[in-house]
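Milestone M4 deliverable, item 7.
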Amino acid sequence: MVKGRRVLTKALGRRGRLWIPNLGPSYFTKFLYFGGYGAKPYMPQPLIMDDNVIKALKDVTNQHWEPSVADYVRYLDTAADWAFEFGVAADVVERRLFQLGE
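Output delivered:
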């Protein structure tokens, strides 16, 4: 995990500076995406990780995924790798995963 991912994981954790009580993962990741995508290009770009995306990740990777900070960071890494491989932006990968999970 690169340094930026460690910082993000710590900040999003239950006692981290970005933790918002009672805001579930689907809404929190939407908040991060719409509020922060492109704000700091050198940092990991936030993506939406809702139930549809989690379902698609399970189907596509045959791995266990859950709405946790650790899996959110893993999802960001995975989406970035796929985006690079297919020559698209990471949010294009997120949109396709959302469609597959519907």
